[in-house]
Protein backbone atom coordinates (compact mmCIF):
# COMPACT_ATOMS: atom_id res chain seq x y z
CA UNK A 1 0.00 0.00 0.00
CA UNK A 2 1.02 3.66 -0.31
CA UNK A 3 1.88 5.60 2.82
CA UNK A 4 3.53 8.83 3.84
CA UNK A 5 6.57 7.91 5.93
CA UNK A 6 8.23 10.37 8.28
CA UNK A 7 11.99 9.97 7.76
CA UNK A 8 13.32 12.93 9.74
CA UNK A 9 12.69 16.58 10.56
CA UNK A 10 10.23 17.93 7.99
CA UNK A 11 10.96 14.93 5.75
CA UNK A 12 7.79 13.15 4.57
CA UNK A 13 8.09 10.60 1.77
CA UNK A 14 5.54 8.70 -0.27
CA UNK A 15 6.57 5.06 0.00
CA UNK A 16 5.20 1.58 -0.57
CA UNK A 17 4.89 -0.40 2.67
CA UNK A 18 3.18 -3.71 3.54
CA UNK A 19 -0.52 -3.70 4.35
CA UNK A 20 -0.67 -4.27 8.14
CA UNK A 21 -1.16 -7.90 9.15
CA UNK A 22 -3.90 -8.53 11.69
CA UNK A 23 -3.81 -10.43 14.95
CA UNK A 24 -6.83 -11.67 16.88
CA UNK A 25 -9.52 -9.10 17.68
CA UNK A 26 -7.99 -6.39 15.47
CA UNK A 27 -9.50 -4.36 12.63
CA UNK A 28 -8.12 -3.52 9.22
CA UNK A 29 -9.61 -0.24 8.05
CA UNK A 30 -9.29 1.27 4.59
CA UNK A 31 -8.66 4.96 5.24
CA UNK A 32 -11.05 7.39 3.58
CA UNK A 33 -9.88 10.65 5.16
CA UNK A 34 -7.49 11.85 7.84
CA UNK A 35 -7.33 15.32 9.36
CA UNK A 36 -4.06 17.20 9.81
CA UNK A 37 -3.56 17.89 13.52
CA UNK A 38 -1.17 20.39 15.16
CA UNK A 39 0.13 17.56 17.36
CA UNK A 40 1.48 15.70 14.34
CA UNK A 41 2.74 18.94 12.79
CA UNK A 42 4.84 19.60 15.89
CA UNK A 43 6.39 16.13 15.72
CA UNK A 44 7.10 16.43 11.99
CA UNK A 45 8.54 19.95 12.00
CA UNK A 46 10.54 19.69 15.21
CA UNK A 47 11.54 16.02 15.16
CA UNK A 48 10.29 15.33 18.67
CA UNK A 49 10.03 11.58 17.96
CA UNK A 50 12.47 9.32 16.09
CA UNK A 51 11.69 8.12 12.54
CA UNK A 52 10.39 6.14 10.77
CA UNK A 53 6.70 6.61 11.54
CA UNK A 54 3.40 7.01 9.72
CA UNK A 55 1.41 9.82 11.30
CA UNK A 56 -2.24 10.82 11.10
CA UNK A 57 -4.77 10.12 13.87
CA UNK A 58 -7.98 11.97 12.94
CA UNK A 59 -9.06 9.03 10.83
CA UNK A 60 -12.24 7.64 9.32
CA UNK A 61 -12.68 4.75 6.89
CA UNK A 62 -14.26 1.38 6.19
CA UNK A 63 -13.65 -1.92 7.98
CA UNK A 64 -12.35 -4.39 5.40
CA UNK A 65 -11.18 -7.22 7.67
CA UNK A 66 -11.53 -8.43 11.27
CA UNK A 67 -8.91 -10.51 13.03
CA UNK A 68 -10.33 -13.82 14.18
CA UNK A 69 -10.62 -14.77 17.84
CA UNK A 70 -12.53 -17.29 19.92
CA UNK A 71 -14.90 -15.50 20.14
CA UNK A 72 -13.92 -12.18 18.59
CA UNK A 73 -13.90 -9.24 20.98
CA UNK A 74 -14.92 -7.09 18.04
CA UNK A 75 -18.26 -8.80 17.42
CA UNK A 76 -18.92 -9.62 21.08
CA UNK A 77 -18.55 -6.12 22.48
CA UNK A 78 -19.05 -3.67 19.66
CA UNK A 79 -21.07 -5.41 16.92
CA UNK A 80 -18.64 -4.04 14.34
CA UNK A 81 -18.54 -5.86 11.02
CA UNK A 82 -16.84 -5.75 7.67
CA UNK A 83 -18.25 -2.93 5.56
CA UNK A 84 -19.00 -0.60 8.48
CA UNK A 85 -18.00 3.04 8.00
CA UNK A 86 -16.21 4.07 11.20
CA UNK A 87 -14.46 6.92 12.98
CA UNK A 88 -11.38 5.79 14.89
CA UNK A 89 -10.00 6.84 18.27
CA UNK A 90 -6.31 6.19 18.78
CA UNK A 91 -6.01 6.67 22.58
CA UNK A 92 -8.05 4.78 25.18
CA UNK A 93 -7.02 4.71 28.88
CA UNK A 94 -6.99 1.73 31.23
CA UNK A 95 -9.68 3.29 33.49
CA UNK A 96 -8.04 1.70 36.55
CA UNK A 97 -4.76 3.47 37.34
CA UNK A 98 -4.18 6.45 39.64
CA UNK A 99 -4.57 8.93 36.77
CA UNK A 100 -7.73 7.33 35.44
CA UNK A 101 -9.31 7.31 38.91
CA UNK A 102 -8.69 11.07 38.93
CA UNK A 103 -10.00 11.35 35.33
CA UNK A 104 -6.59 12.59 34.16
CA UNK A 105 -6.81 10.15 31.26
CA UNK A 106 -4.08 11.73 29.12
CA UNK A 107 -1.55 10.92 31.87
CA UNK A 108 -2.42 7.19 31.88
CA UNK A 109 0.40 4.96 30.59
CA UNK A 110 -2.05 2.85 28.58
CA UNK A 111 -3.50 5.99 27.06
CA UNK A 112 -0.05 7.14 25.98
CA UNK A 113 0.28 4.03 23.78
CA UNK A 114 -1.18 4.68 20.33
CA UNK A 115 -3.63 1.95 19.31
CA UNK A 116 -3.69 2.52 15.55
CA UNK A 117 -0.83 1.88 13.15
CA UNK A 118 0.05 1.57 9.48
CA UNK A 119 3.49 0.17 10.21
CA UNK A 120 6.61 0.98 12.25
CA UNK A 121 5.96 2.29 15.77
CA UNK A 122 2.23 2.99 16.16
CA UNK A 123 1.69 6.68 15.39
CA UNK A 124 -1.88 6.90 14.10
CA UNK A 125 -1.20 5.74 10.55
CA UNK A 126 -3.92 7.80 8.87
CA UNK A 127 -1.54 9.05 6.18
CA UNK A 128 -1.75 5.64 4.53
CA UNK A 129 -4.26 3.54 2.61
CA UNK A 130 -4.91 1.08 5.46
CA UNK A 131 -4.55 1.09 9.23
CA UNK A 132 -4.58 -1.64 11.85
CA UNK A 133 -6.73 -0.99 14.93
CA UNK A 134 -5.56 -2.71 18.13
CA UNK A 135 -8.03 -4.27 20.59
CA UNK A 136 -7.53 -1.84 23.47
CA UNK A 137 -8.83 1.11 21.42
CA UNK A 138 -11.90 -0.71 20.07
CA UNK A 139 -14.15 1.02 22.68
CA UNK A 140 -13.38 4.31 20.93
CA UNK A 141 -14.52 3.18 17.47
CA UNK A 142 -17.79 4.82 16.38
CA UNK A 143 -19.99 3.87 13.42
CA UNK A 144 -20.72 6.71 11.00
CA UNK A 145 -24.44 7.07 10.14
CA UNK A 146 -25.45 6.79 6.50
CA UNK A 147 -26.37 10.49 6.28
CA UNK A 148 -22.96 11.63 7.49
CA UNK A 149 -19.64 11.82 5.64
CA UNK A 150 -16.26 10.31 6.41
CA UNK A 151 -15.02 13.86 6.94
CA UNK A 152 -17.52 14.37 9.75
CA UNK A 153 -16.33 11.10 11.25
CA UNK A 154 -12.70 12.24 11.15
CA UNK A 155 -13.66 15.37 13.07
CA UNK A 156 -14.87 13.45 16.13
CA UNK A 157 -11.39 13.33 17.67
CA UNK A 158 -10.68 17.09 17.60
CA UNK A 159 -14.23 17.85 18.77
CA UNK A 160 -13.66 15.43 21.63
CA UNK A 161 -10.58 17.35 22.78
CA UNK A 162 -12.59 20.57 22.84
CA UNK A 163 -15.57 19.12 24.71
CA UNK A 164 -13.19 17.65 27.28
CA UNK A 165 -11.72 21.11 27.84
CA UNK A 166 -15.14 22.75 28.13
CA UNK A 167 -16.05 20.24 30.83
CA UNK A 168 -13.07 21.43 32.88
CA UNK A 169 -14.69 24.85 33.26
CA UNK A 170 -17.20 25.70 36.01
CA UNK A 171 -19.68 27.59 33.88
CA UNK A 172 -23.30 28.61 34.33
CA UNK A 173 -25.82 29.67 31.69
CA UNK A 174 -25.35 33.33 30.89
CA UNK A 175 -21.67 33.41 31.84
CA UNK A 176 -19.31 35.39 29.62
CA UNK A 177 -16.27 33.58 28.19
CA UNK A 178 -13.45 34.86 26.01
CA UNK A 179 -12.28 32.47 23.29
CA UNK A 180 -8.96 33.79 22.02
CA UNK A 181 -8.28 32.47 18.53
CA UNK A 182 -10.93 31.44 16.01
CA UNK A 183 -9.16 28.76 14.05
CA UNK A 184 -10.89 25.37 13.78
CA UNK A 185 -10.40 24.64 17.49
CA UNK A 186 -11.49 28.10 18.63
CA UNK A 187 -14.62 27.92 16.48
CA UNK A 188 -15.50 24.56 18.03
CA UNK A 189 -15.12 26.12 21.48
CA UNK A 190 -17.37 28.99 20.44
CA UNK A 191 -20.14 26.68 19.25
CA UNK A 192 -19.99 24.22 22.16
CA UNK A 193 -20.09 27.07 24.69
CA UNK A 194 -23.00 28.70 22.87
CA UNK A 195 -24.89 25.40 23.01
CA UNK A 196 -24.45 25.51 26.80
CA UNK A 197 -26.03 28.95 27.01
CA UNK A 198 -22.71 30.72 27.52
CA UNK A 199 -22.12 34.14 25.96
CA UNK A 200 -18.90 34.11 23.95
CA UNK A 201 -16.54 36.99 23.18
CA UNK A 202 -14.48 35.72 20.22
CA UNK A 203 -11.20 37.30 19.15
CA UNK A 204 -8.92 36.75 16.19
CA UNK A 205 -6.72 38.76 13.84
CA UNK A 206 -8.59 37.67 10.69
CA UNK A 207 -11.89 39.28 9.71
CA UNK A 208 -13.05 36.14 7.88
CA UNK A 209 -12.68 34.05 11.05
CA UNK A 210 -14.54 36.62 13.14
CA UNK A 211 -17.39 36.53 10.62
CA UNK A 212 -17.51 32.73 10.90
CA UNK A 213 -17.37 33.00 14.71
CA UNK A 214 -20.67 34.89 14.59
CA UNK A 215 -22.20 32.04 12.62
CA UNK A 216 -20.84 29.59 15.21
CA UNK A 217 -22.62 31.44 18.00
CA UNK A 218 -20.33 34.20 19.28
CA UNK A 219 -22.29 37.05 20.88
CA UNK A 220 -19.43 39.49 20.45
CA UNK A 221 -16.46 39.49 18.08
CA UNK A 222 -13.39 41.71 18.30
CA UNK A 223 -10.18 41.96 16.35
CA UNK A 224 -7.42 40.64 18.60
CA UNK A 225 -5.63 44.00 18.33
CA UNK A 226 -8.66 45.76 19.76
CA UNK A 227 -9.13 43.11 22.41
CA UNK A 228 -5.64 43.83 23.70
CA UNK A 229 -6.89 47.26 24.75
CA UNK A 230 -9.80 46.02 26.85
CA UNK A 231 -9.65 47.01 30.50
CA UNK A 232 -10.02 44.43 33.29
CA UNK A 233 -13.52 45.72 34.06
CA UNK A 234 -14.55 45.45 30.36
CA UNK A 235 -16.74 48.51 30.98
CA UNK A 236 -16.76 49.59 27.33
CA UNK A 237 -20.29 50.07 26.01
CA UNK A 238 -19.41 49.41 22.38
CA UNK A 239 -16.44 48.59 20.20
CA UNK A 240 -15.87 48.90 16.49
CA UNK A 241 -15.34 45.30 15.43
CA UNK A 242 -14.59 43.65 12.12
CA UNK A 243 -18.31 43.07 11.63
CA UNK A 244 -19.52 46.53 12.60
CA UNK A 245 -20.35 48.33 15.84
CA UNK A 246 -21.33 45.82 18.50
CA UNK A 247 -21.75 45.86 22.27
CA UNK A 248 -19.18 44.06 24.39
CA UNK A 249 -19.55 42.66 27.91
CA UNK A 250 -20.27 45.17 30.65
CA UNK A 251 -18.46 43.32 33.44
CA UNK A 252 -15.53 40.97 33.91
CA UNK A 253 -15.18 37.64 32.18
CA UNK A 254 -16.16 34.44 33.94
CA UNK A 255 -13.58 32.44 32.00
CA UNK A 256 -11.14 32.69 29.13
CA UNK A 257 -9.97 29.98 26.75
CA UNK A 258 -6.57 30.57 25.16
CA UNK A 259 -6.60 28.65 21.87
CA UNK A 260 -3.40 30.31 20.61
CA UNK A 261 0.13 29.65 21.97
CA UNK A 262 0.65 33.22 23.17
CA UNK A 263 1.96 34.08 26.63
CA UNK A 264 0.76 37.67 26.16
CA UNK A 265 -2.81 36.44 25.70
CA UNK A 266 -2.51 34.36 28.88
CA UNK A 267 -1.45 37.44 30.84
CA UNK A 268 -4.30 39.47 29.40
CA UNK A 269 -6.82 36.73 30.09
CA UNK A 270 -5.79 36.53 33.74
CA UNK A 271 -6.32 40.28 34.01
CA UNK A 272 -9.72 40.19 32.30
CA UNK A 273 -11.36 37.35 34.24
CA UNK A 274 -13.13 38.39 37.41
CA UNK A 275 -12.38 36.94 40.84
CA UNK A 276 -13.18 33.24 40.94
CA UNK A 277 -12.82 33.02 37.16
CA UNK A 278 -10.81 30.52 35.14
CA UNK A 279 -8.24 30.70 32.37
CA UNK A 280 -7.84 27.52 30.34
CA UNK A 281 -4.76 26.86 28.21
CA UNK A 282 -5.35 24.69 25.17
CA UNK A 283 -2.52 25.53 22.76
CA UNK A 284 0.54 25.71 25.03
CA UNK A 285 1.86 22.23 24.17
CA UNK A 286 5.50 22.95 23.35
CA UNK A 287 7.76 22.23 26.32
CA UNK A 288 10.80 24.35 27.14
CA UNK A 289 13.71 21.97 26.61
CA UNK A 290 16.22 24.20 28.42
CA UNK A 291 15.77 25.45 31.98
CA UNK A 292 14.73 29.09 32.17
CA UNK A 293 17.16 31.49 33.79
CA UNK A 294 15.69 33.03 36.92
CA UNK A 295 16.82 34.72 40.09
CA UNK A 296 16.90 32.69 43.33
CA UNK A 297 13.96 34.72 44.64
CA UNK A 298 11.83 34.26 41.55
CA UNK A 299 8.56 32.41 42.08
CA UNK A 300 7.28 32.83 38.52
CA UNK A 301 6.78 29.77 36.29
CA UNK A 302 8.73 31.51 33.54
CA UNK A 303 10.37 34.95 33.35
CA UNK A 304 8.60 35.43 30.01
CA UNK A 305 5.10 34.85 31.40
CA UNK A 306 5.20 37.37 34.28
CA UNK A 307 2.07 36.25 36.10
CA UNK A 308 0.98 38.06 39.24
CA UNK A 309 0.50 35.01 41.45
CA UNK A 310 -1.55 37.06 43.90
CA UNK A 311 -4.31 37.00 41.29
CA UNK A 312 -4.34 33.20 41.66
CA UNK A 313 -4.30 33.26 45.46
CA UNK A 314 -6.13 36.42 46.58
CA UNK A 315 -8.56 36.63 43.63
CA UNK A 316 -9.07 32.84 43.52
CA UNK A 317 -8.56 32.67 39.80
CA UNK A 318 -7.79 29.26 38.30
CA UNK A 319 -5.12 28.74 35.64
CA UNK A 320 -5.75 25.29 34.19
CA UNK A 321 -4.89 23.25 31.13
CA UNK A 322 -6.51 20.60 29.00
CA UNK A 323 -4.76 18.20 26.66
CA UNK A 324 -5.95 15.53 24.26
CA UNK A 325 -9.24 13.65 24.37
CA UNK A 326 -11.54 11.72 26.70
CA UNK A 327 -12.95 8.63 25.04
CA UNK A 328 -15.75 8.44 27.65
CA UNK A 329 -17.20 11.49 25.85
CA UNK A 330 -17.04 9.81 22.44
CA UNK A 331 -20.73 8.89 22.21
CA UNK A 332 -21.79 12.40 23.21
CA UNK A 333 -19.36 13.87 20.69
CA UNK A 334 -20.80 11.62 18.00
CA UNK A 335 -24.31 12.84 18.79
CA UNK A 336 -23.21 16.49 18.57
CA UNK A 337 -21.39 16.04 15.27
CA UNK A 338 -23.67 13.60 13.49
CA UNK A 339 -26.81 15.54 14.47
CA UNK A 340 -24.97 18.64 13.21
CA UNK A 341 -25.78 20.63 16.33
CA UNK A 342 -22.06 21.22 15.95
CA UNK A 343 -21.79 21.31 12.17
CA UNK A 344 -18.12 20.72 11.41
CA UNK A 345 -18.51 20.84 7.64
CA UNK A 346 -17.82 24.60 7.29
CA UNK A 347 -14.52 24.11 9.12
CA UNK A 348 -13.03 21.92 6.37
CA UNK A 349 -11.54 24.21 3.74
CA UNK A 350 -8.80 22.24 1.98
CA UNK A 351 -8.45 18.63 0.83
CA UNK A 352 -5.24 17.03 -0.41
CA UNK A 353 -4.54 13.61 -1.98
CA UNK A 354 -2.18 11.32 -0.07
CA UNK A 355 0.83 12.11 -2.25
CA UNK A 356 0.50 15.81 -1.31
CA UNK A 357 0.48 15.25 2.45
CA UNK A 358 3.63 17.34 2.88
CA UNK A 359 1.85 20.29 1.27
CA UNK A 360 -1.17 19.71 3.51
CA UNK A 361 1.07 19.77 6.61
CA UNK A 362 2.81 22.92 5.37
CA UNK A 363 -0.49 24.73 4.88
CA UNK A 364 -1.79 23.63 8.28
CA UNK A 365 1.45 24.84 9.89
CA UNK A 366 1.25 28.19 8.08
CA UNK A 367 -2.47 28.87 7.64
CA UNK A 368 -3.73 31.46 5.19
CA UNK A 369 -6.71 33.78 5.57
CA UNK A 370 -8.97 31.24 3.88
CA UNK A 371 -7.68 28.02 5.44
CA UNK A 372 -9.10 26.23 8.48
CA UNK A 373 -9.19 22.44 8.76
CA UNK A 374 -7.00 20.50 6.33
CA UNK A 375 -7.92 16.97 5.23
CA UNK A 376 -5.83 14.26 3.54
CA UNK A 377 -7.81 11.74 1.47
CA UNK A 378 -5.90 8.57 0.54
Describe this structure in words.
The structure is a single chain. Helix 6 (156-167) packs across helix 7 (184-195) and helix 6 (156-167) packs across helix 12 (330-338). Mean pLDDT is 90; it is low at 235-239, 241-246 and 291-301. The chain has two domains: 2-160 and 325-377, Medium-chain alcohol dehydrogenases, catalytic domain (Quinone Oxidoreductase, Chain A, domain 1), CATH 3.90.180.10; 169-321, Rossmann fold (3-Layer(aba) Sandwich), CATH 3.40.50.720. Helix content is 26%, strand content 25%. The chain is of the alpha/beta class. The strands form four sheets. Strands 3, 4, 5, 6, 7, 8, 17 and 18 form an eight-stranded mixed beta sheet that branches. The longest helix is centred in the middle third of the chain and has 12 residues, at 156-167. The protein contains 13 helices and 18 strands.
Features:
globular, six-stranded parallel β-sheet, alpha/beta, 378 residues, 2 domains, single chain, 13 helices, Rossmann fold, Quinone Oxidoreductase, Chain A, domain 1, eight-stranded mixed β-sheet
The total tally of domains equals 2
Structural class: alpha/beta
**Unreliable residue stretches:** 235-239, 241-246, 291-301
- Level of helix content? 25-40%
Shape category: globular
Distance between the termini: 10 Å
Mean pLDDT: 90
What is the CATH C level class of the largest domain, in words?
A: Alpha Beta
Amino acid sequence: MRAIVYRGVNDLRLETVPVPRLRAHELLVRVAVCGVCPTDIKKILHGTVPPPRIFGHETAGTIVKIGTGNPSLVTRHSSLKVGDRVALHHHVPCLDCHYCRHRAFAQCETYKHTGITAGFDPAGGGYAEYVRVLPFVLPGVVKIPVKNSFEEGAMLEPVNTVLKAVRRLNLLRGDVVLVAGQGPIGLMFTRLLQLQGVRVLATDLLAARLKLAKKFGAKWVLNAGQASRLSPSISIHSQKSETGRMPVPQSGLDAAIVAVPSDAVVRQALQLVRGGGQVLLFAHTKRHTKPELRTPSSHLPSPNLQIDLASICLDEKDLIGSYSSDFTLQREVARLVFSRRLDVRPLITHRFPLEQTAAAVALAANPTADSLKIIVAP
